[in-house]
Structures are given as structure tokens and as C-alpha cells.
């Protein structure tokens, strides 16, 4: 994970690739609460990167963590939702797509664990109406 924090862009991109490899392994064995916290903190740093590929990779990694982490993930929602919503306004389409996919993944995964509490958290952050309609459809399904 340290390579993803390097000053050199190529090293950071290689670090993001290694992060995704680590997440592939974690998907098979699961994650502890401490590992989830470390990954979320690390990925949040990546989502703020000026390089759009690195920011996109951080958002995509968060989507994977959301699926693998289960209940350990819900304590991070208060920081993740606003960060993802902020990246919906990014100038690069791949970052906007990754942010939208993260929000959809959060909706699907968190409904399994929290139901209406997650819907209320989304409403507090003024998500665009098309995102809320997807959340409403998932809730009634």
C-alpha cells in the first residue's frame, strides 16, 4: 500500500494495481475490522489524488471493500458517502463512473446490513434524484 502513496505517479499507479490484487485475495478469505479500516483510510487518500486513474482506482477499490467487508464497513459510511458524492462532480468521466458505481454498491451492500438507516444517510447528502430512485427500487425489491 505504501507504493500507492509514492510521489511518482507511475509508482502510485503500480501501487493501486497491487491494492486490487490484495483485494482479490481478501475476497476469498475475508477481512478483519482493522483491515477494513486500514483499507478504507488508504483508499480515501487515493480518491483525492490529482491523477484521475489513481482516484478511479481508489473508488473501485472501495467498491470491492464494501462487498468483502460486510458489517465491518458500515462504520465508514459517514465519510464514504460525501467523498463519493463529491467525485460525482469530477471533470473526468471514469472518476464519475467509479463514484456512481461505489454509491450503487454501497446501496446494495448496506441495504443487506442496515436497510432504511442507509437510505436516510443518502438523503442527508443530497444525492441526485436518479441515484435516490435506484435506492428506492432496491429498497422495495
Describe the model.
It is built from 7 helices and no strands. The chain is mainly alpha-helical. The protein has one domain: Leucine-rich Repeat Variant (Alpha Horseshoe), CATH 1.25.10.10. α1 (9-29) packs parallel to α3 (52-69), α5 (93-113) packs parallel to α7 (129-140) and α6 packs antiparallel against α7. It is globular. The chain starts with 8 loop residues before the first helix and ends with a helix. The relative contact order is 0.11. The model has no long low-confidence stretch (mean pLDDT 84).
The unreliable regions are none
CATH superfamily: Leucine-rich Repeat Variant
What is the CA–CA distance across the termini? Answer: 38 Å
Largest sheet: none
Number of strands: 0
**Helix-strand pattern:** HHHHHHH
Question: Number of helical segments?
Answer: 7
Q: How many domains, in number, for the residues?
A: 1
Report the structural category: mainly alpha
CATH topology: Leucine-rich Repeat Variant
Gross morphology: globular
- Residue share in β-strands: under 5%
CATH domain class name? Mainly Alpha
Report the average pLDDT across residues: 84
Task: Provide the helix percentage.
Answer: over 70%
The radius of gyration computed from the alpha-carbon positions, rounded to a whole number of angstroms, is 15 Å
User: Any guess at the CATH architecture?
Assistant: Alpha Horseshoe
GO cellular component, one term: spindle
Protein name: TOG domain-containing protein
Pfam families: CEP104-like_TOG (PF21040)
Organism: Zea mays
Amino acid at each position: 500500500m505504501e507504493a500507492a502513496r509514492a510521489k511518482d505517479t507511475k509508482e502510485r499507479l503500480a501501487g493501486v494495481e497491487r491494492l486490487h490484487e490484495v483485494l482479490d485475495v481478501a475476497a476469498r478469505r475475508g477481512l478483519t475490522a482493522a483491515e477494513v479500516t486500514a483499507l478504507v483510510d488508504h483508499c480515501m487518500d487515493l480518491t483525492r489524488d490529482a491523477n484521475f486513474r489513481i482516484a478511479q482506482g481508489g473508488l473501485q477499490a472501495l467498491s470491492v471493500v464494501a462487498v468483502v467487508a460486510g458489517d465491518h464497513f458500515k462504520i465508514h459510511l459517514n465519510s464514504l458517502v460525501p467523498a463519493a458524492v463529491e467525485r460525482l462532480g469530477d471533470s473526468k468521466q471514469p472518476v464519475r463512473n467509479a463514484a456512481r458505481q461505489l454509491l450503487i454498491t454501497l446501496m446494495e451492500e448496506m441495504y443487506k446490513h442496515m436497510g432504511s438507516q442507509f437510505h436516510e444517510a443518502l438523503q442527508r447528502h443530497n444525492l441526485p434524484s436518479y441515484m435516490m430512485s435506484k435506492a428506492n427500487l432496491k429498497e422495495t425489491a
